[in-house]
């Protein structure tokens, strides 16, 4: 029993030393995180494109259970802000008559989200949602790349659902937010019951 505890403690110390060494070379985090991001997608089995010069990966995911709605996702290194960012295109062209309601809905969503940011480009009529984490986090803990991708994907399903209600069915943003809050509460209650 003592030997198992000693081996466990040795492994913990070994991991701490690795992290300490990484912290001493923190200036290498951009290239290290980029390599880890590429490795993550190589192992994922997804179809994706890699853009080396701009340091981003682009892929497409089905975001509904019937695989009817596909959205373009991008993951990239933002050196200027020291972030690993994930971005999904919610709409790449909307009716300019709906700008007011789109801005109202995005404002409500941005207020409610504790992670992520909905951006509306009224000039190009596009809507996107992005999330980001400090490069230091995936530099020290590579698994955080997967965590970011999953969180972003799950959040994007609700954001796309909300904007589809507005863009396709022309529903009022206030009612969309109320229904979204009910939907999220229902999902949380279901998750709590499973645990």
Q: Features of this protein?
A:
six-stranded antiparallel beta sheet; single chain; 195 residues; alpha+beta; globular
List the topology elements.
Layout: H1 2-24, H2 29-44, E1 48-51, E2 56-62, E3 70-78, E4 83-91, H3 99-112, E5 117-121, E6 126-134, H4 136-140, H5 143-167, H6 173-194
Antiparallel strand pairs: 1-2, 2-3, 3-4, 4-6, 5-6
Question: What's the quick description here?
Answer:
By secondary structure, the protein is α+β, with helices and mostly antiparallel strands. The chain has helices spanning 2-24, 29-44, 99-112, 136-140, 143-167, 173-194; strands at 48-51, 56-62, 70-78, 83-91, 117-121, 126-134.
Describe the model.
- With 195 residues, the protein is of the alpha+beta class.
- The chain has helices spanning 2-24, 29-44, 99-112, 136-140, 143-167, 173-194; strands at 48-51, 56-62, 70-78, 83-91, 117-121, 126-134.
- The chain has a single domain, classed as Yope Regulator, Chain: A.
- It has a six-stranded antiparallel beta sheet with strand order 1-2-3-4-6-5.
- It is globular.
């Amino acid at each position: 029993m003592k030997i198992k505890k000693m081996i466990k403690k040795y492994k913990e110390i070994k991991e701490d030393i690795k992290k300490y060494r990484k912290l001493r070379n923190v200036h290498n985090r951009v290239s290290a995180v980029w390599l880890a991001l590429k490795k993550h997608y190589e192992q994922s089995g997804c179809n994706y494109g890699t853009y080396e010069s701009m340091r981003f990966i682009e892929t497409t995911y089905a975001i509904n259970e019937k695989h009817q709605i596909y959205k373009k996702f991008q993951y990239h290194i933002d050196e200027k802000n020291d972030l690993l960012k994930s971005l999904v295109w919610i709409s790449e062209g909307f009716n300019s008559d709906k700008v007011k309601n789109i801005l109202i809905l995005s404002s409500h969503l941005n207020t409610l989200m504790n992670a992520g940011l909905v951006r509306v480009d009224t000039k190009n009529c596009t809507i996107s949602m992005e999330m980001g984490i400090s490069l230091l986090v995936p530099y020290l803990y590579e698994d955080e790349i997967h965590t970011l991708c999953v969180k972003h994907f799950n959040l994007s399903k609700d954001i796309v659902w909300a904007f589809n209600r507005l863009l396709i069915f022309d529903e009022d943003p206030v009612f969309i937010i109320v229904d979204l809050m009910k939907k999220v509460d229902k999902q949380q209650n279901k998750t709590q019951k499973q645990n």
